[in-house]
Write a structure and sequence with these properties.
single chain; N-terminal domain of TfIIb; globular; alpha+beta; 19% strand; Nucleotidyltransferase, domain 5; three-stranded antiparallel β-sheet; 41% helix
Length: 300
């Protein structure tokens, strides 16, 4: 039986992972214990059989189960509660530590993809920080947001909030927004002044800095950075049940995942859509956006 046009176009897109040949044909299905049947391919050049890596290669659980667990976690359910939820609906259960590994793995994968997207933002960037505990010691989550699209542009989880840590977030924000930012708004913390000026630089031709530093101090009745504080309320709502973080690496991965959740999954009430819809050209059509983002991330 000859394959139809749809099948032919699908096969043409497949490339052999060993020799990069496009002379590929389908050869049966691979039966797995928990993921059902997976299409197997055969390379006519190097005679290699293989299955496609869709981002879940060698995973023992279905993509739907994995993305469900990630989504529940970022909506406020603990890993142990997610495990209890899965027990009621899936015969093959998993440990709560496995769920955390899924969160860390796919948060890093998706963020590495979304971090390369071009951002279409407004002219004002707001930056602020939140205090946390890592092994009982102070740590800081530093983040920045575009006030027009509500898109969280850059973030980092650090031991301190000194010049270098602030600059690392500002440099990422600058590289992603290019020359679109004209004003950076912060609170009265003095370290922001030098960090913002040195990051965005001075224009010798115009005789001024490339961005305006707008300092808003609530104690002096100068106002309140509502948009980034609204973002922080969402983050606190999710992290208030945490008993601190074990280390900076896992904390950074979890917070990068929240950045993905905030920008691409959660509908913002003020704009009635996800921030990525205004800030990027990315089009997501699958209701399971976690799954679509993982598939896209695996292609790049």
């Amino acid at each position: 039986m000859k394959p139809n046009n749809k099948q032919q176009s699908e096969v043409k897109k497949v490339i052999c992972p060993k020799c990069n040949s496009e002379r590929i044909k389908k050869r049966g299905l691979r039966q797995t214990e928990n993921r059902g049947k997976i299409q197997r391919y055969f390379c006519n050049d190097c005679k290699t059989s293989f299955v496609l890596d869709d981002g879940f290669f060698r995973m023992r659980n279905t993509p739907q189960k994995i993305t469900l667990s990630i989504d529940l976690f970022y909506r406020g359910v603990s890993t142990r509660k997610v495990q209890e939820h899965l027990t009621a609906f899936y015969p093959h259960n998993c440990d709560h530590r496995t769920i955390l590994r899924w969160i860390v793995k796919y948060s890093k994968m998706i963020h590495s993809f979304t971090n390369k997207l071009k951002i279409n933002c407004g002219e004002e960037l707001q930056i602020d920080e939140m205090e946390y505990k890592t092994k009982g010691k102070k740590s800081w989550f530093i983040d920045s947001i575009d006030t027009k699209t509500r898109y969280m542009i850059a973030s980092n989880f650090c031991k301190t909030r000194e010049q270098e840590e602030l600059k690392s977030v500002l440099k990422i924000a600058k590289s992603k927004t290019e020359n679109q930012i004209k004003m950076v708004t912060s609170d009265g913390y003095t370290a922001y002044f030098k960090a913002i000026k040195s990051t965005f630089g001075y224009n010798n031709k115009l005789g001024r800095y490339n961005v305006i530093h707008n300092r808003v101090t609530q104690l002096k009745n100068e106002g309140f950075n509502h948009k980034i504080e609204r973002l922080h309320n969402n983050i606190r709502q999710r992290t208030k049940t945490f008993r601190g973080f074990k280390n900076l690496d896992s904390a950074n991965c979890i917070m990068k995942g929240f950045e993905v959740f905030y920008n691409y999954i959660m509908v913002h009430q003020a704009i009635n859509k996800c921030p990525y819809e205004l800030a990027t050209d990315l089009k997501l059509t699958n209701p399971n956006k976690w799954l679509e983002l993982i598939n896209l991330s695996n292609q790049y």
